């Protein structure tokens, strides 16, 4: 029986992805559609993990 792949949405762009690209942050696993999105997440994980409040103008509050 083949192994089941984990599917999720990319934590950066929202595309449906498999588990090939992933990173852990504060005890949670985040998935990505590409290595580029994974690297973007790793630069500012608090933004993509929803931990940083953002104002309506798009600037961190």
Structural class: alpha+beta
Q: Tell me the number of strands.
A: 4
| Count of helical regions | 2
N-to-C span: 50 Å
Query: Beta-strand level of the residues, as a percent range?
Result: 15-25%
Radius of gyration: 13 Å
Mean pLDDT: 79
Low-confidence stretches: none
> Helix share of residues?
10-25%
Could you give a short account of the major beta sheet?
A: 2 strands, antiparallel
Order of helices and strands: EEEEHH
Within the largest sheet, what's the order of strands? 1-2
Task: Label the overall shape.
Answer: globular
Give an account of the 3D structure.
This protein is α+β, with helices and mostly antiparallel strands and 61 residues long. It has a domain at 8-48. It contains two helices and four strands. It has helices spanning 35-43, 45-48; strands spanning 8-9, 16-17, 21-25, 28-32. The protein has a two-stranded antiparallel ribbon. Strands 3-4 form a two-stranded antiparallel ribbon. The longest helix is centred in the middle third of the chain and has 9 residues, at 35-43. The chain is globular.
Topology:
Layout: E1 8-9, E2 16-17, E3 21-25, E4 28-32, H1 35-43, H2 45-48
Antiparallel strand pairs: 1-2, 3-4
Compose a concise summary of this entry.
It contains 2 helices and 4 strands.
Q: Tags for this entry?
A:
single chain; 61 residues; alpha+beta; two-stranded antiparallel sheet; 2 helices; 4 strands
